[in-house]
Amino acid sequence: MFPLRIGEGTMHLMKKSRIVLLCLTAVMLFAGIVSYRDYGISWDEPNMFNVGQYAYNAVFNGQPWATDQGQRYYGTTVELALHAIQVMTGLTDPADIFAQRHFFTYLIFVFGVLVFFFLVKHVFESETLGVVGSLMLFLSPVIFGHAFFNSRDVPNLVFFTLCMYTLIRLLEERSLTWVLLHAAATALLLSTRITGLMLVGMTGLFLFLDLLLEWRSEGTIWKTSFLGIVYLVLAALGTIALWPFLWENPVSHFLEAYRWSTQLPPGGFYMGAKMVGVIWHYIPVWIAITTPPLYTFAFFVGCASIVTVFMKKNIRRAYVQVRLWLLVAAWLILPIAAVVVLQQGIHGGYRHVFFVYPAFLLFAVEGCRAAYAAVTSLKNEKVAVYGSRALWGVLVLSFLNTAAWMVRNHPEEHLYFSIPARLVEGNFELDYWGLTFRKGFDYVLSSDSRPLVSIYPTSSPGWSTMNVLTPEQRQRVQLVNDVNQADYVLDNYRDHDYTHTFQKDKEVHAVTVDGLKVLSVYKMR
């Protein structure tokens, strides 16, 4: 543990941090309530809706499981729950259905931010740093945007974070209670995305490391071994219970899903070219260019701080002290290494491994702690006081600046970049999930008074966006698949490597985010 020492003001700061946490929770809920209807439809949402529908019909109506591989092998915990809520509320209009999905997906993210608070608080023994970490996660524009429309990767981030918290507590306390909680969290993770197997491997690895260091203590070895076996059994049973696809032939069906997930090829657009394989720096670069700069700077400070601590200690003798940070490092590094080595199917930024981002933020919080400790330990008391205030000021200004950017660019938070637009354009994927098509439809329908307009969207989400338009708007739109029959073309550039292929003089509107043009509306006739 690396507690934050603040002297006599510690209790006062703890009380303040609890108030801030309550305020943050209220703000998160308010942000969701006022925002959840503003988003378009992401590329995968129609398919994930079908996943939930098939799962619901299989469980409650006795219908056969989906045969399409893109729907058959996905974990169904979140999708089944979202569809069950839809059935219970009786919604029938697609705009209402997808708005509801966005709201409840966002609530999962809010839960994840609170879980991260307790994780950071436990790691640093500081409620103040717990609040700092929670704000970093909440005020991460890309994650915040995905929190509404990405019912796969953001829940995966949340449940992986929950698993890491329960794993840390299990390693520390070795109790049956934490084994049960960790197994339940693992089942929730695995039945959402099969990549949760990495968490099972990390649990086994660190329990094994503990066994190696405790081999002289017979009682401890048997206890650790017993807890490990109980964990595996309960996690397996829990996964089967939460994933109806596994109810028949659980082993063979699980292996089918695993083989399918490992055979998906990588792709996407990176460094100005289409990817044919995963490059080692792909994920680190995407994290760096889509994370607020102060968080990234604090991350490197935190890494330096931890390395310094490790160099001063005998890892074998002080294993319990350094184990936590070995675990956090494994959380960050092993999944990225696995993607590169196995050439797994990653594309569209680093969303498939969003679950490593909380580990990144833990190092960033350590960087904040180390900087604060270094400044407050200065011999010149006046410099220490003003220096500590300056650090808090920089942190608060960073949070305010990021929050202002998110408000200003809502609902395109997922298109945040920390580098200048001129370095992004033509080099990295932009609106690859097609959320901006909604603004294109809104512009056409508000600027053209004709009762019926024909629109040609260049990418699949443009067609799906019809599902979030109002009934009145849908009646006025005729989608066509031939550009020569269209009154308007909506182009997010994805299908032609983010180059602008239509005539410039026909462009009547553009959606821009912080200087980046992410969608164009062309009036063809």
Structure description:
This protein is mainly alpha-helical. It has four domains: about 1-150, no CATH class; about 165-265, no CATH class; about 265-430, no CATH class; about 435-525, no CATH class. It contains 21 helices and seven strands. The strands form two sheets. It has a five-stranded mixed β-sheet with strand order 4-3-5-7-6. Helix 1 (about 10-35) runs antiparallel to helix 5 (about 95-125), helix 8 (about 155-175) runs antiparallel to helix 9 and helix 15 packs across helix 16. The radius of gyration is 24 Å and the shape is globular. Residues about 5-10 have low confidence and may be disordered.
Q: What's the total number of strands?
A: 7
Written as H for each helix and E for each strand, in order along the chain, the element string is HHHHHHHHHHHHEEHHHHHHHEHHEEEE
Q: Return Rg in Å.
A: 24 Å
How confident is the prediction overall: mean pLDDT? 92
Q: State the low-pLDDT regions, or none.
A: 3-8
- Approximate helicity band: 55-70%
Give the tally of structural domains: 4
In whole angstroms, the N-to-C terminal distance is: 66 Å
Overall geometric form:
globular
Structural class: mainly alpha
Q: How is the main sheet built?
A: 5 strands, mixed
